[in-house]
Specification:
Elements lengths: L1 E2 L8 E3 L6 E3 L4 E6 L3 E5 L6 E6 L15 H19 L16 E8 L2 E6 L2 E7 L5 H15 L3 E6 L1 H8 L5 H13 L6
Parallel strand pairs: 1-6, 7-10
Antiparallel strand pairs: 2-3, 4-5, 5-6, 7-8, 8-9
Length: 190
Protein backbone atom coordinates (compact mmCIF):
# COMPACT_ATOMS: atom_id res chain seq x y z
CA UNK A 1 0.00 0.00 0.00
CA UNK A 2 1.11 3.52 -0.77
CA UNK A 3 0.13 6.54 1.28
CA UNK A 4 -1.43 9.11 -1.04
CA UNK A 5 0.92 11.89 -2.09
CA UNK A 6 1.35 13.49 -5.47
CA UNK A 7 4.34 11.13 -5.93
CA UNK A 8 2.19 8.08 -6.79
CA UNK A 9 1.60 9.67 -10.19
CA UNK A 10 5.34 9.41 -10.98
CA UNK A 11 5.95 6.06 -9.25
CA UNK A 12 7.04 3.28 -11.62
CA UNK A 13 4.95 0.10 -11.70
CA UNK A 14 5.45 -3.26 -13.41
CA UNK A 15 2.56 -5.66 -13.67
CA UNK A 16 3.39 -9.11 -12.31
CA UNK A 17 0.73 -10.69 -14.55
CA UNK A 18 1.49 -9.28 -18.00
CA UNK A 19 4.77 -7.35 -17.52
CA UNK A 20 3.24 -3.97 -18.46
CA UNK A 21 5.40 -1.11 -17.17
CA UNK A 22 4.50 2.50 -16.61
CA UNK A 23 3.86 5.21 -14.05
CA UNK A 24 0.94 5.61 -11.69
CA UNK A 25 -0.52 8.22 -14.02
CA UNK A 26 -0.55 5.59 -16.80
CA UNK A 27 -2.32 3.02 -14.64
CA UNK A 28 -6.05 2.52 -14.44
CA UNK A 29 -7.88 3.52 -11.28
CA UNK A 30 -9.97 0.72 -9.86
CA UNK A 31 -12.49 0.68 -7.08
CA UNK A 32 -12.71 3.32 -4.37
CA UNK A 33 -13.20 1.56 -1.03
CA UNK A 34 -15.14 3.52 1.58
CA UNK A 35 -13.62 6.78 0.36
CA UNK A 36 -10.35 5.73 2.00
CA UNK A 37 -8.55 3.49 -0.49
CA UNK A 38 -8.31 3.46 -4.25
CA UNK A 39 -6.88 0.58 -6.22
CA UNK A 40 -4.47 1.15 -9.09
CA UNK A 41 -4.74 -1.51 -11.76
CA UNK A 42 -2.85 -2.52 -14.87
CA UNK A 43 -4.35 -0.83 -17.96
CA UNK A 44 -3.59 -3.94 -20.03
CA UNK A 45 -4.86 -6.85 -17.92
CA UNK A 46 -6.57 -5.17 -14.91
CA UNK A 47 -4.31 -6.88 -12.35
CA UNK A 48 -3.88 -4.97 -9.11
CA UNK A 49 -0.72 -2.84 -8.95
CA UNK A 50 -1.12 -0.93 -5.70
CA UNK A 51 -3.64 0.44 -3.24
CA UNK A 52 -3.49 4.12 -2.37
CA UNK A 53 -4.50 5.19 1.12
CA UNK A 54 -6.29 8.51 0.82
CA UNK A 55 -5.92 10.89 3.77
CA UNK A 56 -9.12 12.65 4.81
CA UNK A 57 -7.92 16.06 3.66
CA UNK A 58 -7.53 14.77 0.08
CA UNK A 59 -11.13 13.65 -0.14
CA UNK A 60 -13.50 15.89 -2.06
CA UNK A 61 -16.15 15.36 0.62
CA UNK A 62 -14.25 17.58 3.05
CA UNK A 63 -14.03 20.73 0.96
CA UNK A 64 -16.87 23.19 0.46
CA UNK A 65 -14.84 25.51 -1.72
CA UNK A 66 -16.18 25.87 -5.23
CA UNK A 67 -19.41 23.96 -4.61
CA UNK A 68 -22.62 25.22 -6.16
CA UNK A 69 -25.70 26.00 -4.06
CA UNK A 70 -27.24 22.70 -5.21
CA UNK A 71 -24.10 20.77 -4.21
CA UNK A 72 -24.01 22.48 -0.81
CA UNK A 73 -27.66 21.53 -0.27
CA UNK A 74 -26.97 17.91 -1.26
CA UNK A 75 -24.00 17.83 1.11
CA UNK A 76 -26.15 19.18 3.97
CA UNK A 77 -28.85 16.59 3.23
CA UNK A 78 -26.25 13.80 3.24
CA UNK A 79 -24.91 15.04 6.58
CA UNK A 80 -28.44 15.03 8.00
CA UNK A 81 -29.04 11.49 6.75
CA UNK A 82 -25.77 10.41 8.37
CA UNK A 83 -26.83 12.06 11.66
CA UNK A 84 -30.19 10.28 11.56
CA UNK A 85 -28.44 6.96 10.87
CA UNK A 86 -26.01 7.51 13.79
CA UNK A 87 -28.94 8.28 16.10
CA UNK A 88 -30.29 4.77 15.40
CA UNK A 89 -26.96 3.02 16.05
CA UNK A 90 -25.59 1.44 19.19
CA UNK A 91 -23.14 3.89 20.72
CA UNK A 92 -22.93 2.82 24.36
CA UNK A 93 -22.95 -0.45 26.28
CA UNK A 94 -25.59 1.16 28.51
CA UNK A 95 -28.10 0.84 25.65
CA UNK A 96 -27.90 -2.96 25.85
CA UNK A 97 -30.24 -5.01 28.06
CA UNK A 98 -29.17 -6.99 31.10
CA UNK A 99 -29.09 -10.70 30.26
CA UNK A 100 -29.54 -13.67 32.59
CA UNK A 101 -26.45 -15.07 34.31
CA UNK A 102 -24.34 -17.63 32.51
CA UNK A 103 -22.45 -17.86 29.24
CA UNK A 104 -23.80 -15.89 26.29
CA UNK A 105 -23.44 -16.67 22.58
CA UNK A 106 -24.98 -14.00 20.37
CA UNK A 107 -25.67 -13.97 16.64
CA UNK A 108 -25.29 -11.17 14.11
CA UNK A 109 -28.37 -11.50 11.92
CA UNK A 110 -30.16 -9.49 9.25
CA UNK A 111 -33.79 -9.05 8.27
CA UNK A 112 -34.85 -6.64 5.55
CA UNK A 113 -32.75 -3.51 6.15
CA UNK A 114 -31.92 -4.17 9.80
CA UNK A 115 -28.94 -5.74 11.55
CA UNK A 116 -30.20 -7.77 14.50
CA UNK A 117 -28.16 -8.92 17.49
CA UNK A 118 -29.87 -12.01 18.85
CA UNK A 119 -29.59 -13.98 22.05
CA UNK A 120 -31.23 -17.18 20.84
CA UNK A 121 -34.43 -15.95 19.17
CA UNK A 122 -34.60 -12.76 21.26
CA UNK A 123 -33.43 -9.57 19.53
CA UNK A 124 -31.38 -7.55 22.02
CA UNK A 125 -30.38 -4.81 19.56
CA UNK A 126 -31.45 -3.66 16.11
CA UNK A 127 -30.10 -0.93 13.85
CA UNK A 128 -29.95 -0.12 10.13
CA UNK A 129 -27.85 -2.61 8.17
CA UNK A 130 -24.69 -1.37 6.47
CA UNK A 131 -23.28 -2.94 3.31
CA UNK A 132 -19.72 -4.10 4.00
CA UNK A 133 -20.47 -3.55 7.69
CA UNK A 134 -17.43 -5.47 8.96
CA UNK A 135 -16.06 -2.41 10.75
CA UNK A 136 -19.48 -1.89 12.37
CA UNK A 137 -19.32 -5.55 13.47
CA UNK A 138 -16.14 -4.80 15.40
CA UNK A 139 -17.60 -1.64 16.99
CA UNK A 140 -20.69 -3.51 18.18
CA UNK A 141 -18.65 -6.53 19.31
CA UNK A 142 -16.52 -4.23 21.49
CA UNK A 143 -19.63 -2.70 23.08
CA UNK A 144 -21.12 -6.16 23.68
CA UNK A 145 -17.85 -7.30 25.27
CA UNK A 146 -17.85 -4.18 27.45
CA UNK A 147 -21.40 -4.92 28.63
CA UNK A 148 -21.24 -8.70 29.10
CA UNK A 149 -17.52 -9.25 29.75
CA UNK A 150 -16.13 -12.78 29.83
CA UNK A 151 -19.66 -14.22 29.83
CA UNK A 152 -19.87 -13.37 26.11
CA UNK A 153 -18.41 -16.30 24.19
CA UNK A 154 -19.10 -15.29 20.58
CA UNK A 155 -20.88 -13.00 18.16
CA UNK A 156 -21.47 -15.31 15.20
CA UNK A 157 -22.73 -14.05 11.82
CA UNK A 158 -25.74 -15.93 10.45
CA UNK A 159 -25.64 -17.13 6.85
CA UNK A 160 -28.23 -14.55 5.76
CA UNK A 161 -26.18 -11.68 7.24
CA UNK A 162 -22.90 -12.55 5.53
CA UNK A 163 -23.52 -10.98 2.12
CA UNK A 164 -24.13 -7.54 3.62
CA UNK A 165 -21.52 -8.01 6.34
CA UNK A 166 -18.67 -9.02 4.01
CA UNK A 167 -19.83 -7.30 0.83
CA UNK A 168 -17.44 -7.19 -2.10
CA UNK A 169 -14.38 -6.34 -0.02
CA UNK A 170 -12.35 -9.57 0.04
CA UNK A 171 -10.35 -8.85 3.26
CA UNK A 172 -13.57 -8.42 5.28
CA UNK A 173 -13.87 -12.17 5.97
CA UNK A 174 -10.36 -12.29 7.46
CA UNK A 175 -11.16 -9.17 9.47
CA UNK A 176 -14.28 -10.75 11.02
CA UNK A 177 -12.35 -13.94 11.82
CA UNK A 178 -9.63 -11.85 13.51
CA UNK A 179 -12.16 -9.85 15.57
CA UNK A 180 -13.89 -13.02 16.77
CA UNK A 181 -10.54 -14.62 17.65
CA UNK A 182 -9.25 -11.57 19.54
CA UNK A 183 -12.45 -10.77 21.45
CA UNK A 184 -13.91 -14.22 22.05
CA UNK A 185 -11.11 -16.72 21.42
CA UNK A 186 -13.17 -18.33 18.65
CA UNK A 187 -11.41 -20.11 15.78
CA UNK A 188 -13.98 -19.54 13.05
CA UNK A 189 -13.83 -20.11 9.32
CA UNK A 190 -16.44 -17.43 8.67
Amino acid sequence: MTIYTEEWIKKEYTCSSCSWSGTGSDSARGLLYRGKFVELTCPTCSASLDVLILPAEKGCAHSLEGLSEEQLKAKAEAAEQERQYRDKCLSSADQLPILADGEITLSWDMEEDQTLIRNGETVIWSEPAVYEGFDRFEQIALLLKEKYGTRLKDLAPTDRSKLFLYGDYEPSLAFIIKVRKELFGVDAES
